[in-house]
Prior knowledge:
Blueprint: E1 3-8, H1 13-28, E2 32-37, E3 44-45, E4 71-76, H2 78-88, E5 95-99, E6 109-110, H3 114-122, E7 127-140, E8 143-150, E9 153-158, E10 165-171, E11 177-181, E12 183-187, H4 195-198, E13 210-216, E14 226-229, E15 234-238, E16 244-248, E17 252-256, E18 260-275, H5 281-289
Parallel strand pairs: 1-2, 1-4, 3-17, 4-5, 5-6
Antiparallel strand pairs: 7-8, 7-18, 9-12, 9-16, 10-11, 10-15, 12-13, 13-14, 15-18, 16-17
Amino acid sequence: xxxxxxxxxxxxxxxxxxxxxxxxxxxxxxxxxxxxxxxxxxxxxxxxxxxxxxxxxxxxxxxxxxxxxxxxxxxxxxxxxxxxxxxxxxxxxxxxxxxxxxxxxxxxxxxxxxxxxxxxxxxxxxxxxxxxxxxxxxxxxxxxxxxxxxxxxxxxxxxxxxxxxxxxxxxxxxxxxxxxxxxxxxxxxxxxxxxxxxxxxxxxxxxxxxxxxxxxxxxxxxxxxxxxxxxxxxxxxxxxxxxxxxxxxxxxxxxxxxxxxxxxxxxxxxxxxxxxxxxxxxxxxxxxxxxxxxxxxxxxxxxxx
Length: 305
């Protein structure tokens, strides 16, 4: 019996309703259907007390989900998509992402197009687009005590965010550099249109095998964004006596104590997006963010009578 999954945002009534409806439809068509909520991909926020709860990346796979699945539907917004890939990337399940939220930058289709989209997928009329992910680890005396998969970005900052911090950053085998800023963003190409874009970073097309480092409000004109091969491992240490806060994809994080360090590297797992048409990254940039729209000249001044 073929197998599919449905991951949905359980705090949105419309997503819950659509999940149940499509479970019944797919079961009637002879599919074994497994349901899961996007909540399972949220690692939550730890408190400053020790010990931290170390949740291995592979343990987030929902019950019943495995690598025999043909695909899974994701019903929600961008946050649900990020959470869903943290759940299924280790087993390589491709996702058809359906927007029930607002921006929907990472989603492929909309609810009113869902019947046609599912029919195309069931007929195999789609292509896969693979996006790179990061493995983010919190290290204490060289031992990983917290880890997470990351599709967008890792952000490291102080509390409150407006406080300046000194970071010692080592990229690959290069010499360490000191960055004074309110925080640091380590981003994938997918995440280049998220927080790092707001912080002044460049837009990177998804297929480019790079990682970018963006200081948040740097306190030096010499501290600019950096783009480097994603084969490089990044280590970040704090030169401040106070704890830092690390947030991954905006919905999972932990405290980083002065004796801890953060490590990021390219994940062996990738996010597999189901695409129903040729990927049009520039079109999405234009529709969602207004990139490349024609310049509208100001009207010429006229003298009033």
